[in-house]
């Protein structure tokens, strides 16, 4: 019985959480990569806008930032995913300014603060997403714990509902095994016997 309880705890409790931990780290990297791509598109459009006004030096500088962010994004996601997202981000931002570079202030209002942080302090942004993932893990742990306690309570109700008529109908040996099993699970007096469950660990 003790081995059974250990196995149930391992399956229900530990494995999902370890999987969630790995998943949330990947999700944090994926979200960060997506922000890098959005900002790569932002600086790319800015570079084109500067080029069209004749500011070659500013255009080259902005393009270098765009290229660097796009390269960083590839460290956290597949090349095809990064390039597809880059094209979508360029399209979205071009539509936002109605494909008129005189309207660059529109994308500046939307992306300037984020892209300033992403370009100047990318590590802090990655840690931001890791922090959000940790909060999600904590919420999931609490939810799993609540579900586990609820399931245990329902199991107690079902097991405690076994009555003498049922036990009499399954024979003396089966009755003994059933009493012992239920007492092990509930750890309390049951049908005249007090049997405490062995602690797990």
Please describe what this structure looks like.
The protein is mainly alpha-helical and 201 residues long. The chain folds into two domains: 2-127; 155-191. It is 82% helix and 2% strand. It has helices spanning 2-52, 56-73, 79-96, 104-120, 122-160, 164-169, 172-186; strands at 189-190, 193-194. Strands 1-2 form a two-stranded antiparallel ribbon. Strand 1 and strand 2 form a beta hairpin. It is elongated and about 90 Å long. The two termini are 13 Å apart.
Secondary-structure element order, N to C: HHHHHHHEE
Number of helices: 7
CA-based shape: elongated
Task: Find the structural class using helix and strand composition.
Answer: mainly alpha
Strand order across the biggest sheet? Answer: 1-2
- How far is the first residue's CA from the last residue's CA? 13 Å
Mean pLDDT: 76
**Radius of gyration using CA atoms only:** 30 Å
Biggest sheet record? 2 strands, antiparallel
Helix-residue proportion? over 70%
| Beta-strand residue fraction | under 5%
State the low-pLDDT regions, or none: 4-15, 187-201
Number of domains: 2
Number of strands: 2
Main attributes?
about 200 residues, mainly alpha, two-stranded antiparallel sheet, 2 strands, disordered C terminus
Describe the secondary structure blueprint for this structure.
Layout: H1 2-52, H2 56-73, H3 79-96, H4 104-120, H5 122-160, H6 164-169, H7 172-186, E1 189-190, E2 193-194
Antiparallel strand pairs: 1-2
Helix pairs in contact: 1-2, 1-3, 1-4, 1-5, 4-5
